[in-house]
Amino acid sequence: MTTHKIKQFFKDFGKQSKENLVSLFRRKTRDNYFITIPHEQNTSTTSSDTIPSNELGKPLQKELSQKSEKRKRVMKLILYYSLEYIIPLLCLGLVLGVLLSGGIPTFSLPYFYIEDPTLSYPKHQHDILPLWEVAAIYVLLIPLVSFLLFHLLFIRNLVDFHHALVGYVQTIALCMAITAFGWLVYGGYRPTFLVECNPNMKVVNEHRKSGNTLLPYRYFKPTDVCQNPENFRLSSPLMTSGFPSGHVSSVMSVWLFFLLYFAGKADTWNRRKGQFWKVFLFFLLLLVPVWVGVTRIVTLKHTISQVVVGILIGIFSALLVYRYKYCSIFGVDAKTPNYYMWQKQQPSTP
């Protein structure tokens, strides 16, 4: 008898705990959290509700037809929404493929001033944040893990999950496309360029002794005077091109997008519900991509202008994509996916 009571106690305790957890996880997906539209229901009774005797042999055919239509609609929806992931990923893969294959021509490199002090810094031996660490930790691991944990614990809404995840993918794709465009069109040089170039002074002196006044005595291209010109054809543009900073632009875009997401869910911009500590925490966490930019300047990987442009690209990408996916950026409805506004205006169909 005692054993039976103990088993029953743990059984009831487990059932109650499960109900409490479900209530906790879903407490923010109640009808008053997002803008929700009640489903249209046809409560009227028509003659079609009663199956005539001459149609009793057709229920199976009707059921099969309904299942077929439902299957087609589901496949159409899957294709429609999967393209939101596939197309940005293909664009991102194309950009990275072109960069890694050395597809940037030499003529995109600008002339440089042989006595430019901003390009004459010594080479820094230690890289605080290598490329793999920035990509793996600050762009993928920390943002995605934080988002998944937050969503599973507090939101648990499939529509919101889709908007946030596809927004993350599109933010990265847009940011890298703009950054790669800067590498392709301008390229730019890093502060340690002249040390790595090691100009051939014999060629430089020949230009200076030339009697042709039209020749640029002090301005050259890397392929003209560098000791190893093949290293400056941007065959490895991810490591060579300096304008803009890819480290800073990628980290800023991802962190700003997810910080806007968290701030919206916490009602940070709602002056009736929000508290200033949320705003303070928002800008405090936003210092992480700024810190990444500072490390690029300190280690002489980029100039200040290259880092600033990278920050601006990241901010632009995050704001554009977030506004495209959510109702506002700094409004009281910043937490609401646009899906619910579309539902209010018309049925959500692809």
Automatic annotation (TrEMBL):
Stretches assigned to the Phosphatidic acid phosphatase type 2/haloperoxidase domain: 166-322
Region Disordered, annotated ranges: 42-64
GO terms, molecular function: phosphatidate phosphatase activity
Protein's membrane topology: Multi-pass membrane protein
Signal peptide: none
Coiled coil: none
Protein name: Phosphatidic acid phosphatase type 2/haloperoxidase domain-containing protein
Taxonomy of the source species: Eukaryota, Discoba, Heterolobosea, Tetramitia, Eutetramitia
